[in-house]
Specification:
Largest sheet: 9 strands, mixed
CATH topology of the largest domain: Rossmann fold
Number of strands: 17
Bound molecules: GDP-alpha-D-glucose
Number of domains: 2
CATH superfamily of the largest domain: Glycogen Phosphorylase B
Low-confidence stretches: none
Number of helices: 18
Helix content: 40-55%
Distance between the termini: 27 Å
């Protein structure tokens, strides 16, 4: 089955270098996993090419060149500046993102954003329609394009439609705040397969359908929930996304990394490194984490001089005021902690506000004695999986929020925390730092085995297998009466 993969952003960065338009692929586990599928099946990736200045024929030329270089085709959905602002920055980042992470007080339910979202969905549908061939699987990615299934179905497109949500799905009392809740739910039910990251999200979705659309029939099986709506069947399941484990593990164990590790160890002089790596985002729980670290230093003086918190914060969504406020709050907390606890030769928090090169990131993942991953809510969280994959010596301890999707798979071998519980996270930091080597080794071995097995290729295969099952059932339903 050929796949048309649709996401808000294309995996391509278009830029002008020395007066010439160039393009290169944006890296990431999802791209790595999907590219072989696209190359093999002759599929295509459809999405917005990002805020580049290239337009019309010029843009098409760059993307044509990109398609030839990469061995799979891409097609662009152009968006005007106003659509970008109202749809992406507004509807996606000021409404869906906070609401789906249970932070409804941060939402700005501006009705113009919704109007814009519908316009953008039509623009995506135009491009999908122009490229879809009969039988192609149309696989839509993430919350930005939840409504695309509805538009495609209303245009009479007969292709199988699938959707994967990378972020959490909220429980009914939060989802109900969305003024367009019925449109969104009805839209999702147009997909034949919906993938969520966890059973928690699947259960929340099923509860929302039950509460808001009681007429929809549903059947709960152990692994999935089936909904019957307007003559269509929608199968929803939990498909936790993984990483390319081998790529991280091998990258972290390379000879260059051995050398870099020695350098870093010399710099940190035997101190335990507690590592945090996050996009600047209020869902990642940075202020709570910093307060918990301060609390740990306050309550457990034995940690003084013995630990360093290395916190990488990657700039993100800088145009949104809440993100500017968060940046200032993080900087203030870091300054307060360092001002209060620094001693000659020891600065407790090393804070980097920038994107870090991948090779350096792998070195830090390998070096760190503790991976501190405490989002307030997260669809999955890949950082915790990458950290464990890079723990080639197997000595690290994962401290993990119970509200990260990853806790369903990894929680039992991590030190689990409620990220809002400052005393609890402080105690977990101490527990992790003081954990005996044998206990660390056993837990890290189990974590790594799970992440190696349930990797990004496993995720892809599970999801596509479900799509094939649903397709076969659909074909049977349509052909059986004729056969009789
Ligand atoms: C969404 C969902 C879900 C970070 N800093 C640097 C850097 N990174 C890379 C990490 C990791 C990625 O960014 C972050 O992934 P997360 O999963 O933690 O978070 P989101 O970006 O919010 O992703 C999330 C995910 O989709 C997948 O379904 O897990 O829940 O919110 O890969 O390595 N990479 C480099 N330098 C950095 O400084 N090179």
């Amino acid at each position: 089955m050929r796949t048309l993969f649709v996401s808000n952003r294309l995996p391509v960065i278009v830029e002008k270098k020395a007066g010439v338009w160039t393009s290169h692929t944006s890296s990431g586990g999802l791209v790595t996993a999907l590219v072989p599928l696209l190359k093999r099946g002759g599929g295509m990736w459809i999405g917005w090419p990002g805020p580049s200045e290239a337009q019309g024929a010029e843009l098409e030329g760059v993307l044509e060149q990109f398609s030839e270089q990469q061995g799979y085709r891409v097609a662009a959905v152009p968006l005007s500046t106003q659509d970008y602002q109202r749809f992406y920055q507004g509807y996606c980042n000021e409404i869906l993102w906070p609401l789906f992470h249970d932070l409804q007080s941060l939402c700005n339910f501006n009705p113009d954003y919704w109007t814009s979202a519908q316009k953008v969905e039509q623009a995506f549908a135009d491009v999908v329609e122009a490229h879809a061939q009969p039988g192609d699987l149309i696989w839509v990615q993430d919350y930005q394009l939840m409504g695309l299934g509805r538009v495609l179905a209303s245009r009479g497109l007969q292709n199988p439609l699938a959707f994967f949500l990378h972020i959490p799905f909220p429980p009914p009392d939060i989802f109900m705040k969305l003024p367009w809740r019925l449109d969104v739910l009805r839209g999702l039910l147009q997909y034949e397969v919906i993938g969520f990251q966890t059973r928690r999200d699947l259960a929340n979705f099923a509860d929302c359908v039950h509460k808001l659309l009681p007429e929809v029939e549903r059947r709960r099986n152990p692994e999935e929930v089936r909904f019957e709506y307007e003559g269509r069947t929608c199968a929803a399941g939990a498909f936790p996304i993984g990483i390319d484990f081998e790529e991280f593990a091998e990258g972290a164990a390379s000879p260059e990394q051995d050398a870099r590790l020695e350098e870093l160890k010399a710099i940190y002089m035997g101190r335990q490194i507690i590592l945090g790596v996050d996009r600047l985002d209020y869902t990642k729980g940075l202020p709570y984490r910093l307060r918990a670290f301060a609390r740990a230093l306050e309550k457990y003086p034995e940690l003084h001089g013995r630990v360093t918190l290395l916190q990488v914060v990657v700039p993100s969504r800088e145009a949104v005021p809440q993100y500017q406020k968060l940046k200032a709050e993080v900087e203030q907390l870091v300054a307060q902690i360092n001002g209060r606890f620094t001693q000659p030769g020891w600065v407790p928090v090393h804070h980097l506000f920038r994107h870090v090169e991948r090779t350096e990131l792998l070195a830090w993942y390998r070096l760190a004695d503790v991976g501190l991953v405490t989002p307030l809510k997260d669809g999955m969280n890949l950082v915790c999986k990458e950290y464990c994959a890079c723990q080639v010596e197997g000595n690290g301890v994962l401290v993990l929020s119970e509200f990260a999707g990853a806790s369903e798979q990894l929680g039992k071998w991590a030190v689990e925390v409620n990220p809002y519980d400052i005393d609890g996270v402080a105690a977990a930091i101490r527990e992790a730092v003081l954990m005996p080597p044998e206990t660390r080794r056993i837990a890290m071995e189990r974590l790594r085995a799970n992440i190696r097995e349930e990797n990004v290729y496993w995720w892809l295969e599970q999801f596509l297998a479900e799509c094939r099952v649903i397709q076969e059932e659909r074909t049977e339903r349509f052909t059986t009466p004729l056969a009789r």
